[in-house]
Specification:
This is Chorismate-binding protein. Residues 83-324 form the Chorismate-utilising enzyme C-terminal domain. It comes from Rubritalea spongiae. InterPro entries: ADC_synthase, Chorismate_C. By secondary structure, this protein is α+β, with helices and mostly antiparallel strands. It has one domain: Anthranilate synthase, CATH 3.60.120. It has six helices and 19 strands. The protein has helices at residues 80-95, 173-176, 180-197, 233-240, 253-265, 314-331, and strands at 8-12, 17-22, 26-28, 36-40, 51-53, 56-61, 72-76, 105-114, 132-138, 141-147, 150-155, 158-169, 201-205, 209-212, 216-227, 275-280, 283-288, 292-296, 299-305. Strand 16 and strand 17 (283-288) form a beta hairpin. The longest helix has 18 residues, at 180-197.
Length: 334
């Protein structure tokens, strides 16, 4: 596996394999017609050539990564002041009718004291459902994670996605099922997705359920669309991203610009929450890059986001952000 020492992309597939693209990559502005191409872009979708075609493709079993060992990291807790200021600004915008929901981000930073950052890849060996493993490594920079959120899968006119919003500790599962604030936040996401996708085809919405992630639980609503006709993957990516779970509601250019500014002021990693996927000979599969770790050299970041609506309270949202980051740190053993 010498190629894992160089530039590469990785994503888990539905059949339990890891699809790995070995660099160097050739970049394209649009999805190729055949072969394998990875889609990598930042949250603002500012890369004009986001399609990365690898020199070579490898299909591995998950245990191919088991020899990687996580590094030791010295962490510094994030300051609450900046988040509190942005939270207040979002609330004021909600009160004046300019917004119903947005998703600020808090980031915990650390420095690798011993071991290799790429050792984090070892934790991707365990990618049991409902998690999807993903990674992008480019020199001394990269990110990897295990996300529970599918952006969408497109196969022969069948489009699958999900609404994933509302969070609690697993120990609070019984009361979480009746939490009005969390249900309201989830319904913002689910209903907006249904409305946004209804022009593509017949939308089938399944019942809201609870997704168990071990330390955390989320509300989860699967959605499937039987499409009226063909649409380009590039069009669908821009239609879907950012999902209501990570973006503003309503989603307009003005509310998106506000979100970009808030993320920049809170120093969120550019690729946190962005789409990452692979086109594999006619099938496209993309995830939302949450529950991940981002690094540059020996500096490492673990971000987390929360949906802020009128019923949100600062203390509760700050606690939720810490819960999410702690779950990532526990999963990656850092």
């Amino acid at each position: 596996m010498n190629f894992l020492n160089d530039d590469f992309a990785l994503i888990s597939t539905a059949d339990g394999e890891l699809l790995v693209g070995e660099g160097p990559f050739t970049e394209f502005s649009q999805c190729p017609r055949d072969g394998v191409a990875f889609y990598k872009n930042d949250f603002a979708l500012s890369d004009s050539k986001p399609w990365k075609v690898p020199k070579q493709v490898h299909r591995l079993k998950a245990d191919a990564l088991q020899d990687f060992v996580s590094p030791n990291v010295c962490w510094q807790a994030p300051e609450a002041g900046g988040f509190a200021r942005i939270f207040s600004e979002i609330n004021e915008t909600i009160q004046t009718g300019g917004l119903e929901k947005s998703v600020p981000v808090a980031t915990e930073c650390g420095v690798v004291e011993s071991g290799l950052v790429r050792g984090l890849l070892g934790q991707l060996a365990d990618h049991r459902k409902p998690f999807y493993s993903y990674a992008w490594v480019e020199g001394k920079n990269g990110f990897c994670g295990q996300t529970p959120e599918l952006l969408f899968q497109l196969r022969k006119g069948r489009f699958k996605t999900m609404a994933l919003a509302g969070t609690a500790r697993a120990s609070d599962r019984s009361v979480f099922a009746f939490d009005e604030k969390e249900i309201r936040e989830h319904e913002y996401v689910a209903q907006t997705l249904v409305a946004n996708l209804s022009d593509l085809g017949m939308v089938k919405r399944s019942e809201r359920r609870i997704m168990d992630l071990g330390e955390l639980v989320h509300f989860h609503t699967p959605l499937e669309i039987f499409m009226y006709g063909d649409q380009s993957i590039d069009f669908l990516l821009r239609k879907m991203h950012p999902t209501p779970a990570l973006g503003p509601h309503p989603r307009t250019q003005e509310t998106l610009e506000m979100l970009y500014r808030w993320r920049n002021e809170l120093e969120a990693p550019a690729y946190f929450g962005a789409p990452f996927g692979v086109y594999d000979n006619g099938v496209f599969h993309a995830v939302v890059t949450i529950r991940g770790v981002y690094w540059s050299g020996n500096e490492i970041q673990v971000p987390s986001g929360c949906g802020v609506i009128e019923a949100s309270r600062l203390t509760n949202e700050w606690r939720e952000l810490e819960l999410k980051r702690n779950a990532v740190k526990a999963r990656f053993r850092i």
